[in-house]
Amino acid sequence: MIGKKAPSFTCQAAMQDHITDNVCLENYDDKYKVIFFYPQDFTFVCPTELHAFQEKLPEFEKRNAQVVGCSVDSSSTHEQWLKTPKNQGGIEGITYPLLADVNKNMCRDYGVLDEESGLAFRGVFILDKNNVIQSMTINNMSLGRNVDELLRVIDALQFVEQHGQVCPANWNSGDKAMDPNEQGVKEYFKDA
Question: Which of 32, 56, 109, 183 could join 7 in a cystine, given CB atoms 3.0 to 4.6 angstroms apart?
């Protein structure tokens, strides 16, 4: 899927205090997109991740990146979870859209559906402004993600787009990059 257009989608979404119909990928044109899948509402690891995304939402917004969550739950189930306080395992305070993939088509299209359980693995897809998938990772259901790493990947993507250089292992914003050729590698390792 890397380097290809992301599968399009249209579905309902729960948003803080209301349900919205016909949310689609094109709603977020001219933005970078972080689409993350999680197994199910009212579970255990999931609320920790959703709150972690919310805590870093200003950082995603600084990078012109839209965060969108998705599970196989209905929008009304999302809405109930959004009304449940954090200290009771809920996600009250989450402000980004939660897509309702009740027919599981989006999970299938993105390759994250566990057919046996009917739930989504913890997949996350970073799309550029043209909806091309630039990064994807998929964790098993018991393994939570590192949201800071997703911000680092967006920084790297934007750096590459702006400067034409490539980002080596463990690169962070402000670190040395390299030209994508043999001389670039030599220059990078020159002081190592």
Answer: 109
**Max CA distance (Å), the chain:** 57
* Model pLDDT for residues 18-48, shown as the tens digit of each residue: 999 999 999 999 999 999 999 999 999 999 9
Q: If you count them, how many residues does the chain have?
A: 192
Per-residue pLDDT reduced to its tens digit, 75-124? 999 999 999 999 999 999 999 999 999 999 999 999 999 999 999 999 99
pTM of the full structure? 0.95
| Domains delineated in the chain | 10-145 (3.40.30.10), 147-192 (no CATH)
Give the containing element (helix H, strand E) for 1: none
Please report which residue ranges of 24-94 form alpha helices under DSSP H: 45-55, 57-62, 75-82
Active site residues: 46
Taking each helix axis from N to C end, the angle separating 147-163 and 45-55, rounded to the nearest 10 degrees, works out to 40
Q: How far apart are CA 91 and CA 82, in angstroms?
A: 5
**What's the rounded Cα separation, in Å, for the pair 42 and 4?**
33
Collapsing DSSP states into helix, strand and coil, what is residue 58?
A: helix
